[in-house]
Design a protein that fits this description.
The complex is a heterodimer. By secondary structure, chain A is of the alpha/beta class. Helix content of chain A is about 50%, strand content about 15%. Classes of the chains: A alpha/beta, B mainly alpha.
């Protein structure tokens, strides 16, 4: 006890915080098991090429999952990304040049990727597709697709909205040209009993997102729910709702720390998670299984990582994981 | 190219001074970038094992050619003292027009390709015409065009196709022959050489010939150096500038067709931000931001540096988060090197 007191005293005298901060994080990391590989297979190289933009939260979580699996499976893991189809195809080409042992790609722009994925398959590199491209994955010659079927996820949202007795819903699309987003809203429309409208906003400009939602809520008082398609946009929708003085419930696709907090304090209704961590983790692990044991998961169908509806009661347990950046 | 210094002797015209070949070489705008390219190549040859593979060479050259095709006319435009910020999205516009016109009219794909050429040249003419008419800086004019084209790309595609990307035209007549022209490749051993490399080489050759051997080339240097003085000695300033913008539009059409015939479907939101990359390639290649100085070959070297850096970082297995940082550092270093080489060259005249 005395020692603790002395330590605290010394720390506070030195102007250090004895709680939280970088040190607490380091201590927690030290206590956790270090990611040593759990297998004795040779050190294979797997490359992952996604359509993520720079500094994207969602893809950061995917990458974390992939890196964790790579550490366990003794894999040299390479990650690269570009939002433009042509650039993404070039990055896949560099992976083929490197003669990697496995390839993970996202097919948000399947037409740009078709030729280069075929080239990888022809070169004998096992390919797994993640996140987007469940329809094309098999035709392109990939082993498995891991992700969420956007239509099914949308349908789950429609059902959940019905259960909550909503009548008029706004679906906020933040990315022009994203087919998956259209499918989400269409899926929700399909199962939802009330009326649903689409609202297109510019996702790269947060104030603009907020202003657009605000204007819509102002002009139509009967809207009683807003569904955003990405975690960062839920916060903007909540602000818009407050400024407009609307009663609408805000629901969202995807999770992050502030969404988990919002669910816990009930400023948000529910979130639909597609578990990005699992997409990265499983992709690497399944490639390892294929290399090691020729195993293929999914029986020729996509392996679904979602949708998982998360409400206030689940949010408590997830708070730590969202802070850690793995959910 | 101002020659300062003493004439060698009285009564001799300074323009007739003989300069040694070495000095001529030192005076070339692209010299600094060639030195830079060699340095970047050596660096990645050491840092990345797979960088020197023959198959990687094809990948790097392809990446360089997609930038290089646009960097050539952008360099000419910058020598002429102007900017074009709409060059990036114009590529996407051009691809969208081809694809949607062919599909909606159920026309032979080549019809769409030529309609796209006319419309894209129209965009270029609009830029040049607005610039010469309004006397506003080209930075402002083309910024406006850039935003308008970005909106048109998204708006029209959604309106016509109902989605944000075009419909496939791969099964239409003329597609295969157009693909041969714009997006075929040749495999030698395990090197894959894309046809864009040929387009690029041809554009560099033509642009170099224009700059060095033609009257129009002199006009470009004159207009970029000192427009009022050029006008006073009878250079058609307006025609020269419009011509330069048409050049950018033509290259945007070539790049756009390549995009379309490589992938068959075009995403309407792409191309934003690439205009800066073309400018970077031209500047690394020795073009001055203020105009009147630069070369087409330099832009090609700039594009090669860009291709080597962007792919080299991947081959070296570095974290891609650092890519933009390296690009920025590379830009500053190359420009400093250029300035230094130019100063040395002028001092020894």
């Amino acid at each position: 006890m005395g020692a603790v007191l002395a330590a605290v005293l010394a720390a506070s005298l030195a102007g250090c915080s004895s709680t939280g901060g970088k040190r607490a994080e380091e201590r927690a990391a030290q206590q956790a098991a270090e990611g040593r590989s759990a297998v004795n297979t040779p050190r294979w190289t797997f490359a992952m090429v996604t359509h993520s933009g720079d500094g994207d939260t969602f893809w950061d979580i995917v990458q974390k999952g992939a890196e964790q699996a790579a550490a366990k499976d003794n894999i040299n893991f390479l990650y690269s990304h570009d939002a433009e189809g042509q650039q993404q195809a070039e990055l896949v080409q560099t992976a083929i040049d490197k003669k990697v042992d496995g390839l993970i790609v996202s097919l948000a722009k399947p037409d740009s990727m078709k030729a280069v994925v075929a080239k990888a398959v022809k070169a004998g590199i096992p390919v797994i597709t993640v996140n987007s491209g469940s329809a094309e994955s098999k035709a392109f010659g990939a082993l498995t697709h891991i992700g969420q079927d956007e239509s099914i996820a949308g349908e789950a949202v429609g059902d959940e909205l019905d259960e909550r007795g909503r009548k008029k819903v706004l679906c906020v699309l933040h990315e022009q040209g994203n087919v998956g987003h259209e499918q989400r809203c269409a899926g929700a429309k399909k199962t939802f009993g009330g009326t649903m409208q689409n609202l297109y906003v510019d996702g790269t400009n947060m104030p603009d997102v907020q202003a657009s939602i605000e204007a819509k809520l102002d002009s139509d008082r009967s809207i009683d729910a807003v569904v955003t398609l990405g975690a960062p946009f839920a916060a903007a929708a909540v602000k818009a709702k407050q400024t407009a003085g609307s009663k609408a419930e805000i629901d969202t696709f995807d999770l992050n720390a502030s969404v988990a907090t919002g669910l816990a304090n009930e400023s948000l209704g529910f979130a639909v998670d597609q578990q990005p961590y699992l997409q990265g983790y499983e992709a690497v692990d399944l490639l390892w299984l294929h290399r090691y044991n020729q195993n293929v998961l999914g029986g020729g169908r996509p392996v679904l990582t979602g949708p998982q509806i998360i409400t206030a009661e689940d949010a408590e347990a997830l708070a730590d994981y969202t802070k850690r950046g793995t959910r | 190219m101002t020659a300062t210094g003493q004439p060698a002797a009285p009564h001799t015209d300074e323009r007739l001074l003989r300069t040694s070949p070495l000095r001529k070489l030192l005076g070339r705008p692209e010299l600094g970038s060639v030195v830079g390219a060699a340095a970047v190549f050596l660096f990645f040859a050491i840092a990345a094992d797979s960088f020197l593979q023959t198959s990687s060479l094809g990948t790097v050259l392809y990446a360089a050619s997609t930038i290089g095709i646009m960097a050539v006319p952008v360099a000419l435009l910058m020598i002429g003292g102007e900017f074009d910020l709409s060059a990036g999205v114009m590529v996407t516009s051009s691809a969208l027009i081809s694809s949607m016109f062919s599909y909606q009219m159920t026309a032979n794909v080549w019809v769409g390709v030529f309609v796209s050429l006319l419309v894209t040249l129209g965009f270029g003419a609009f830029n040049g015409f607005m610039l010469t008419r309004t006397k506003l800086p080209s930075f402002i004019i083309t910024l406006g065009t850039f935003l308008m084209l970005t909106g048109l790309n998204l708006g029209f595609t959604k309106l016509i196709s109902g989605t944000v990307s075009t419909k496939t035209i791969g099964d239409m007549e003329g597609f295969e022959s157009a693909r041969k022209v714009f997006a075929s490749y040749l495999t030698i051993g395990d090197v894959e050489l894309k046809v864009t490399i040929l387009w690029w080489a041809a554009l560099v050759a033509i642009a170099t010939w224009i700059l060095i051997r033609t009257r129009f080339g002199n006009w470009i240097f004159a207009v970029g150096g000192e427009a009022d003085a050029a006008r006073a000695v009878g250079v058609p300033v307006i025609r020269t500038r419009i011509g330069l913008y048409l050049g950018v539009a033509f290259a945007a059409w070539v790049s756009g067709q390549h995009l379309l015939f490589s992938y068959d479907v075009v995403q309407s939101g792409e191309g934003v931000g690439n205009e800066l990359i073309y400018i970077i390639a031209a500047v690394i290649g020795g073009c001055l931001i203020t105009g009147g100085y630069g070369s087409a070959i330099g832009s090609a070297v700039g594009a090669i540096i860009f291709g080597m850096t962007s792919k080299g970082i991947v081959y070296a297995e570095w974290n891609p988060d650092w890519f933009k940082f390296f690009l920025g550092a590379m830009l500053l270093l190359a420009t400093l090197l250029n300035a230094w080489v130019r100063k040395r060259a002028e001092a020894t005249k």
